[in-house]
User: Fold this.
Amino acid sequence: MTDDHQLRQLIDRICGNLDLNSSDRRLAVNLLLIKLQRLPGLLTNSHPYYLEALDKTWEWVSKSICNFKQRPHLSLQESLVKWINSYLYWRIRDLSLRQNCQDSEVKSLDSPSDPSGENTSTLLEQVWETNLVPPKVTGLDAYLEANRRRRIQEIFEKFEDYVAQDPEGILRNCHPRNCPQCHCQLLCQKLLFQAPRAKISQLGRDLGVNHQTIRYHWPTKCLPLLQGILESLGYGQDE
Assistant:
């Protein structure tokens, strides 16, 4: 399966879930961010505001991914890199401008693009169409950010290994009453790791379990377990 297809599967999965607070959606967003942070061509910069701008960029991506539109004649990966880099580039400039200029006439790029209120997007959310290609600069900040990405990638690799091995049997032993075949290890592999994601209705038929049982057990029992495993491996809310 191509990387473009995997990215599209994750984006569709996120945008098809209207519950912004669901554990399933948050995990899908985390997996997407991990894949995006590994894309070649992402901007690195030694600017003192780079890391702050990068954090704001990933926060924006997690909230705005459903507004992303692939550019014609570019692959999904290439479009995503341009989309992310343009926002990051202007976010760095905006932070620098606000820090160094006290002129009250300077407008933040977080200001509404349309003062009338008809268009609620900010100026910064509009700039990715500019096609700017900022220079790539390496430095200590870029080195630190690369280490951060590598650490998060290692955590998720350990997470996948933990789920596959389930050394303490926690996941296999968490199942609905009288349905031992419908355990959290299997559900995680089918509903989180597998691409395309298994359909709950078909999974219910395969396991001989009512699909409503899975719809209840997965978010209320399995996802909290998985979140706890991630946290025990070092993944925190600030990643």
Remarks:
- Residues 102-107, 127-138 have pLDDT under 50 and may be disordered.
